[in-house]
Design goal:
By secondary structure, the protein is an alpha+beta fold. Helix content is about 25%, strand content about 35%. An eight-stranded mixed sheet has the order 1-2-3-4-5-6-8-7, sandwiched between helices.
Length: about 180
């Protein structure tokens, strides 16, 4: 079962499938140590990571396990990051949400706006009941995004990741269909 990657529009953003033209901006985003300071994987060091990322996007679509969209501002078509709906499990009607934006896009509400659009698409298109997201407990900006979207902090995964050599905790957030305010 495939799950076609959508093209979505918000007031300020266009979310769309990745193209080869995104390669340079994607590499710049994923190789920025400041952007990835709370991630459990290191910044990209070589361009082959771009191809693996793009292959992963195609594989998610082909397998029907999710969709990852590039986020661009509609005003100037500049790539600002990505948002993903992944780990779709039709049997449990559950999935995960994630996002990553470049530093120039921080503090403008783009993560919330993009994630809102992806969630609306998921709740309207797929019979999803639960969406989960996790964030490093030090990443308060990401926690605020999730809470603005209606996610509820459900618990803490203690010492579940090693980020830049430091053992770190993660907060687990959940959003149920019945609580969706989309």
């Amino acid at each position: 079962m495939t799950l076609p990657t959508p093209t979505l529009h918000t007031e300020r953003l266009r979310l769309r499938p990745f193209t080869d033209a995104d390669a340079d901006a994607l590499f710049e985003l994923q190789s920025d140590a400041e952007v990835l300071r709370y991630w459990d994987s290191p910044p990209w060091a070589d361009r082959s990571s771009v191809e693996r990322f793009m292959d992963g996007c195609r594989r998610m679509e082909e397998e029907g396990s999710g969709a990852r969209v590039a986020i661009e501002r509609t005003a100037d078509q500049v790539f600002v990051g990505w948002c993903t709906f992944n780990s779709w499990n039709p049997g449990f009607r559950s999935a995960s949400l994630g996002y990553c934006l470049n530093r120039a896009a921080w503090g403008h509400g783009y993560a919330t706006e993009a994630a809102q659009a992806v969630l609306a698409w998921a709740f309207d298109t797929i019979d999803v009941n639960r969406v989960q997201s996790e964030t490093d407990t030090r990443n308060l900006a990401s926690a605020r995004v999730l809470e603005k979207l209606g996610f509820v902090r459900e618990g803490t995964l203690r010492e579940d990741c090693i980020v830049n050599g430091d053992v770190s905790d993660s907060w687990v957030y959940g959003l149920l269909r019945r609580d969706w305010r989309g």
